[in-house]
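Q: Structure for this?
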Amino acid sequence: MKEQNIRDELKGIAPNLSQMKGTEGYSVPPVYFRELQNKVLDQLQNEKQEQRAGNWLSDLIRNYLNPRYALALATLVIVVVTAVVLSEDNDTALLASISSEEAYAYVYGHIGDYETMDLYTLADVEDTDFFIGEFSDEEINYAIDVLLEDIDAESLEELY
Amino acid sequence: MSDADILELISEQTTFEQGFRLLMTRYQERLYWHVRRLVVHHEDADDVIQNTFIKVFKGLSGFKGNSKLYTWLYRIATNETMSFLQKRKRHHMQSIDGEQDLTKNLLADPFFDGDEVQARLIQAIHQLPDKQRVVFNMRYYDEMKYAEISEVLGTSIGGLKASYHHAAKKIELFFKEASV
């Protein structure tokens, strides 16, 4: 029925063509189609082997850097970074909460731990002659008082 | 066995070969003849059909069943054949379209059993533009419905009817001129 419709359609357009056989007359070598399957399957085996060989990197990524592991790694990094940042913030916050009296007491108690030039640098004093020469205990205490009045929490953190 | 069963076999590693052989047994001849009509010579058709099945293998994982398996296979075979023909034209290899002695060559071809009229019809078809040739073959030899051809080629049914009409007219004219 389908073929008849196609032939009928053709009669109106190309009457001579509609009278022709409708087959093309081609042939293939004996057992061609059976051999074709074997040839194609051999090629597919080669393709598969090449794919396997070429996929080692993607396998590595898929197996060892899959989203589950990547997520765990990223979480770990975030936790460590956050801990470090919070720890720094805590130090600053802690130092800011120290009173002047406590700071004086700490610095006096640890005065031997600092180099004179460190104190000079922190005080940002331009006249270096101020620190050159012999000083009495009163002069040194006076200098420390001056330094501690100017020093801010951040600088104190560096000293600490 | 349904196409879905065959695809299921192909998807399992242990039954892959059995499944692929079944797929080929079911469709290889129809696809081969479709390709052969477009490229004419058996050796060319053999190359193209092998590449077609390699492409099918590579694309099977992406086949979602939105179209019929046969339509999908036909589309791959048609695209593969068109690229082959384009490549042949680009590389200035022997062009079937411009070949004046195609009828004579076909009659001397060991893999052509037809008569002179059939050989001349093939020559007439190969003087058509690529698109018209594909549409004409699918309708005339494969007896496909316009809706099926439309699904394979992605062309409107109206456009296909026009292509088929023009192709048939040109072939008719070819025979009229030859008989004068």
